[in-house]
Amino acid sequence: MLLEINQLTKTFDAGRVKALAGVSLQLAAGKIYSILGESGSGKTTLARLIAGLERADEGSITLGGSLISSIATHLPPEKRPIGFVFQSYALFPHLSVQQNIAYGITTLSNWQERVEEMLQLVELKGYGKRYPHELSGGQQQRVAVARAMARNPELLILDEPFSNLDSTLRIGLRDELFKILQRTGVTAVFITHNAEDALAISDEIIVLLEGQLLQQAAPQELYQQPATPYVAQLFARLLPLSKKVLEAFSFEPASDKKYFLREHDFRINQTADYQSTATVRQMTFMGKYYLLTLDIGGQFLQIQVPQPVPEEEVTLAWSAVDLLVF
Amino acid sequence: MSIPTLYIVVQFLRGPGESWAHFAQYLLPIYLRNSLYLLLACGVLTILIGVGTAWISTRYEFPLRRSLEWLLILPLAIPSYITAFAYAGVFDYGGSLELLARGLGLEMPKLDIMNIYGLIFILSVSLYPYVYVACRAFFMHQSQNLLEAAQVLGDSERRSFFRLILPISRPAIVGGVVLVAMEVLNDYGAAKYYGINTFTTGIFKSWLDYQEPITAVYLAALLLVIIFGLLLWEQLQQGRKRYTSGTKDRKRLVRIRPRSTRRCFFTLLVALPVILGFIIPVAQLIYWAFLAFDVINWSDIFTMVWHSLTIATLAAACCVCFAVALLFTSQWNHLRSINKLAKFGVLGYAIPGAVIAVGVYVPSLFFEKWLIGVVKTTFSFKIGLFLTGTTVALVYAYMVRFLAVAHNPIAAGKQKIQATLSEASQSLGKNPVATFFKIELPLLRTALLSAFILVFIDVMKELPLTLILKPFYLKTLAVEAYQYASDERVIESAFPALMIILTGVLPVIFLNRLVRQD
After folding, report:
1. Same fold across B27-196+250-291 and B292-518
2. Could you say which residues from 409 to 438 on chain B have a Cβ atom under 8 Å away from some Cβ of chain A?
3. Is the overall model pTM greater than 0.80, yes or no?
4. DSSP codes of every residue in B254-307
């Protein structure tokens, strides 16, 4: 394993705010990871602890077999072979693109070649003499990646790299960045709050909530076998199914379990493992979709459908494999 | 940096000297009355001038507005004691005003300005820019939405100024007026020249005339009580209220273009403080400079310029370096205690120069005597005075007094540098020291230069502290201008005075450009 984190804990404000509570995880070399969580989940704190920008209260971090962080040890950030791409890119405004990229490698004898190599990697050849403010947002991001990659880090952390971008631009940049990382083969960790980004680029996703690790798994596994309802709802709207609704589908629920279905797993007027008739109480046009309010045995359920449903009564069905049980 | 203040507090607790009873009975009530009277009257006048000009120049469009906006700051370039000499020359028997009136065939009634009312006028036209600058910065960041909200709720333009703008600008006004108060209490030259006894002139009197430093210390301590009272009031006045709206969509104030007669009236109104605080005193000094051209000893002038520039450069550089050290060590060490110490260290600006001079001189002398004794007994070697009466004590005292002047722009500049830039540098293999020299220092360039220039100007103008602590051989422009004027050789004071103004005005213009470029 390249990186091993053991029971990492970090508090702020004299212990009043717990940012991370005993997080343990392992990252293998050469893979792309995403740390996914909403704001306040502790994902940025985790990244900063790995990079050495914060000191952990408890726990340890080992990189490539050597201990870089524990209560007694704290290898300063400048000594860690870790690259960090900041959310705001943090390009030095008084240095040109070339000087920015060269910043961490001037001690190398071949630093000029390396800068050229990096410019080529991020497809910014010819931009070396420009200053950060003369570049577009996407170009600035690529310079930040090139600068971090120039030192040949063992691990590259990218903190919310797409958060300042609109959706069209973000998909383009995401793909571009993905290609760059694949070309270099570096182990990368994306910090993101966007589940779609995480799915699109990662070999594995690590989900954090309130400073705790909920699940670490490959995207498909995370989608199909979410560990908690929170993980499941990251990827689609989750509908809780009450005992009465389940009984209407002739499904016998266990009393100590909770049952959910993703909205798009309901099928209308089709057959599947479980089915029931439902009365359409209301249909609201919402632009991209129709919002259907259905009455199943006195219980109301709202689902989105792409087409209008003219009938007053419909058959609602779902497959057993889609049922999420916690 | 806090040794002088601590020394004064300790001495105060040890009790007064022999002539204190005399001081307390006969002089203290006068000092107290005059100082409070000056504080109150100058406070009201500077608020009227400062707030009025700031509001008119931010809210209305009128001829010469752009020029007047920065000309309004220029009175700060003239030390108030120089304005005081100049006005004495204007209103004197046979002074410029009388000559002018006679030339025009008019009879001028005699106007005596050398009294407390004259001093109030002088200090107000010299110091109003503190309120003006604070309020202007505040008004420029106000939202048009707020004013529009007041107007749709039924307030006229004038009414919304009094009901809305004035109350919400309270922190800015108080911030400005506290600075005015500090300067009023710090003033020695103008009050002495006009024969008004204040706390600061009292400190000098007890020190130099009565030869009793302990009484000076006692007076200084009482003055400190007033200063801390003022600072406490500044802190407390805000209470639980908030003066800034949390909305992000700030629509900047829209400038109104009034009728043409009103526009001309505004030009005249805003130009008046510039005329009174800058143009008249400078014109008087230029007139004197012409008269004195033949009697000027040029080699003396060059010596003064050289001494002033050297000492101001040295003090400014020391202040900037110390402020940088203070700001960055607290960051590197993650020590909160240093942050608190830093706050204590920058208190000096609130303490009058005379108080600092006393607080520096007496402990320095004590330390020096002790060390000379130790060296003599241990090594049988005699050393002379190396602190008091040398530039070391003077520069140290300047640092105590002006550290805040350097600290504030650098701290503000540092705050503007994103923390991620330093972190990025560290993640790229540079340790905190390398990061400081490669990233933070270059990005702080403007702030460092601003800090340097501000301290430089202040040191060039400084009088009371320099008078007490300057080495015998040192001739600064400020001290010499004051000495000439005190010796009734007021015409000869014009050259050094104009030099001080010039060194004050040029950096202000340069700084203005620099800030714009940045």
Report:
1. yes
2. 418, 420-421, 423-431, 438
3. no
4. PPB---HHHHHHHHHHHHHHHIIIIIHHHHHHHHHHHHHTTT--HHHHHHHHHH
